[in-house]
């Protein structure tokens, strides 16, 4: 079974520029998450999708961050304009609909963003 | 304060046991998790425990849960250099996960 795919793996941009990240979850996983992991911290949830609908985006800085999952599969996370404090690893995770612990999440390798 | 707290660093010798501790706040969490993160990689689920259990053993891993004190621990027996990584404790008060800051485990030969 293929894991969660993310691209790019690394991105360096200047502040005020825009950037987009892509995530392809595990096939059949209806729930998709985006997390932000700042150096030295645990991952913090940005947004949760169930199919193509948003379940929780309470911690997403909506003035600059946006995310979509139009067909209920792939997802993109965008930052526009970027700030220095957005430097972090952006992790995508997906969750199976049933079985196991139900809340078990599978993580992609992440995209490391550096804003200069 | 943090919802999930962990000590930041642990150093052990190869072959010793490692114990990583965690305290959490939300008693409604159905499951509690331990994730491992190696440098440059995403998070890998190590093990989890259902909230009505006290202990779970999975090969070299033992998870102990004290619900009264909201304390979770992960014991790694016969620690190997390949176990060097950051270990995250996580609770799930809803359908999401709340992580601690992680404990860096360094295993020396």
SSE layout and pairings?
The complex is a heterodimer of chains A (about 120) and B (about 110).
Chain A: E1 5-7, E2 10-13, E3 19-24, E4 31-37, E5 44-50, E6 53-56, E7 65-68, E8 75-79, E9 88-95, E10 106-107, E11 111-115
Parallel strand pairs in A: 2-11
Antiparallel strand pairs in A: 1-3, 3-8, 4-5, 4-9, 5-6, 7-8, 9-10, 9-11
Chain B: E1 5-6, E2 9-13, E3 18-23, E4 31-37, E5 43-50, E6 55-58, E7 61-66, E8 71-76, E9 85-91, E10 98-99, E11 103-108
Parallel strand pairs in B: 2-11
Antiparallel strand pairs in B: 1-3, 3-8, 4-5, 4-9, 6-7, 7-8, 9-10, 9-11
User: Could you state the order of secondary-structure elements of chain A as H and E?
Assistant: EEEEEEEEEEE
Report Rg of chain A.
14 Å
Subunit organisation of the chains: heterodimer
Shape of chain B: globular
Compressed to H and E, one letter per element, the order of chain B equals EEEEEEEEEEE
Mean pLDDT of chain A, to the nearest integer, reads 92
Helicity level of chain A: under 10%
The N- to C-terminal Cα distance of chain A equals: 37 Å
| Average pLDDT rating of chain B | 91
**What percentage of the residues of chain B does DSSP assign to strands (E)?**
over 45%
User: N- to C-terminal separation of chain B?
Assistant: 36 Å
The main pleated sheet of chain A reads as:
7 strands, mixed
Could you tell me the radius of gyration of chain B in angstroms?
13 Å
In helices, the fraction of residues of chain B equals: under 10%
Q: How many E-type strands of chain A?
A: 11
Global geometry of chain A: globular
Which stretches of chain B are low in confidence, meaning pLDDT under 50 for 5 or more residues running? none
Structural category of chain A: mainly beta
Number of strands of chain B: 11
């Amino acid at each position: 079974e293929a894991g969660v795919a993310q691209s790019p793996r690394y991105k360096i941009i200047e502040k005020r520029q825009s950037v987009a990240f892509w995530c392809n979850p595990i096939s059949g996983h209806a729930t998709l998450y985006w997390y932000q992991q700042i150096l030295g911290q645990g991952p913090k949830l940005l947004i949760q999708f169930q199919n193509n609908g948003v379940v929780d985006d309470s911690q997403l800085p909506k003035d600059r961050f946006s995310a979509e999952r139009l067909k209920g599969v792939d997802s993109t996370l965008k930052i526009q304009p970027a700030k220095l404090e957005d430097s972090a690893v952006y992790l995508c995770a997906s969750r199976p609909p049933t079985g196991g612990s139900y809340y078990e999440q599978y993580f992609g390798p992440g995209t490391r963003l550096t804003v200069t | 304060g943090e919802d999930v707290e962990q000590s930041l660093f642990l150093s052990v010798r190869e072959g010793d046991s490692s114990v990583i501790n965690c305290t959490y706040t939300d008693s409604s969490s159905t499951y509690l998790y331990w994730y491992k993160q190696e440098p440059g990689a995403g998070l890998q689920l190590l093990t989890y425990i259902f909230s009505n259990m006290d202990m779970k053993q999975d090969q070299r891993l033992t998870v102990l849960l004290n619900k009264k004190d909201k304390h979770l621990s992960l014991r790694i027996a016969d620690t190997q250099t390949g176990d060097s990584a950051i270990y995250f404790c996580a609770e799930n008060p809803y359908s999401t996960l709340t992580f601690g800051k992680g404990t860096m485990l360094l295993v020396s030969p």
